[in-house]
Design a protein that fits this description.
Helices cover 41% and strands 10% of the residues. It is globular, with a radius of gyration of 14 Å.
């Protein structure tokens, strides 16, 4: 049985990517020790949506768990939408200029 993406719940099959729950820009010696626990394999679209929605600081302070990510209102809306798409569906998530400035 194939693994499911922890964000959208769709079966593995499209392009999967590694997401660091604690962003690498905030890596410390303590997070390096627990790096295996810090990585999750998720669908490419879900990964792009996470990084289009949250700044690195947001990911570090608030959204460093799967539960926090999927319970965000914008992500809930995205998850409801993406679950209806075929596993190989791809559409680029566009960052807003404001969000890019936050990085």
């Amino acid at each position: 049985m194939k693994n499911k993406c922890p964000i959208c719940g769709r079966a593995e099959g499209g392009e999967m990517q590694i997401h660091h729950l604690l962003p690498r820009t905030y890596r410390t010696r303590t997070t390096d020790v627990h790096d295996k626990d810090n990585k999750v394999l998720i669908q490419k679209m879900c990964h792009q949506k996470i990084h289009a929605t949250f700044s690195e600081h947001d990911l570090f302070t608030c959204y460093h768990t799967i539960d926090n990510i999927i319970n965000n209102p914008e992500m809930e809306k995205f998850i409801k939408w993406i679950r209806k798409k075929p596993i190989d569906f791809y559409s680029k998530n566009n960052d807003t200029a404001d969000r890019k400035r936050k990085r």
